[in-house]
């Protein structure tokens, strides 16, 4: 079993103190819109790797690559604005702590801010991610992912009707093509309430605004140990 701490959107005071060191966590998942130094603190305090996707209030992290001389963007040396040491899974599939994690960040486009996509744009990104998953399956002989990590929810599954918080229609097909056991998202604030876990085909959908602590085993649905929303 892998102990996973999933966080997004709202910082939790008790997690940003030495108190968090009492938690036994193997992996931190960030679903966006959190201070990057918060994610860095969790990684350091828990001595655990972090996989994240950017939210619509995060800076633009596209176009960065790291090589022998450090971070580059557009062929020029550049400082990495993201959380130091964390893995940006946006548009990628990574394997960390024994789990296969696919990532797709951002929200529906509602203004000119970063990390916002039209439905058509996100559908194209989702199609590329599904093709990457198929390539991994051919190489490894193992199909599917354990976690689809997104910032926004799927359309009609935990989203809202106001323009900034509408989910993506393409996520339903993507979850099916990836054979995702779990979709973990943020973006939609429950304002102290406990959002219900939802089901999208064979995928369990979890809103992790605040934090969710869960036990996961590759190939199975997670067991929710403890959850808190708000501060």
UniProtKB/TrEMBL annotation:
UniProt domain Calcineurin-like phosphoesterase: residue ranges: 22-191
Entries under InterPro entries matching the protein: Calcineurin-like_PHP, Metallo-depent_PP-like, UPF0046_metallophosphoest
Pfam families recorded: Metallophos (PF00149)
Protein name: Metallophosphoesterase
Protein species of origin: Rhodococcus tibetensis
């Amino acid at each position: 079993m892998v102990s996973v701490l999933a966080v997004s959107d709202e910082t939790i005071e008790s997690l940003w103190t030495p108190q968090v060191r009492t938690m036994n966590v193997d992996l931190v998942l960030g679903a966006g819109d959190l201070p990057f130094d918060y994610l860095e603190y969790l990684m350091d305090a828990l001595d655990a790797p972090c996989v994240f996707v950017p939210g619509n209030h995060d800076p633009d992290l596209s176009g960065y690559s790291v090589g022998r001389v450090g971070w580059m963007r557009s062929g020029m040396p550049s400082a990495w604005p993201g959380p130091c040491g964390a893995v940006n899974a946006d548009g990628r599939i990574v394997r960390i702590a024994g789990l296969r994690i696919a990532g797709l960040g951002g929200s529906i486009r509602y203004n000119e801010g970063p990390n916002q996509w039209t439905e058509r744009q996100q559908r194209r990104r989702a199609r590329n991610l599904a093709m990457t998953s198929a390539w991994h399956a051919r190489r490894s002989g193992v199909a599917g992912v354990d976690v689809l990590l997104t910032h926004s929810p799927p359309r009609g599954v935990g989203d809202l009707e106001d323009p900034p918080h509408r989910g993506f229609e393409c996520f339903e097909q993507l979850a099916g093509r990836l054979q995702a056991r779990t979709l973990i998202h943020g973006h939609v604030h429950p304002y102290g309430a406990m959002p219900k876990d939802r089901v999208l085909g064979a995928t369990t959908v979890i809103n992790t605004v605040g934090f969710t602590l869960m036990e996961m085993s590759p190939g199975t649905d997670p067991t929710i140990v403890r959850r808190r929303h708000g501060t």
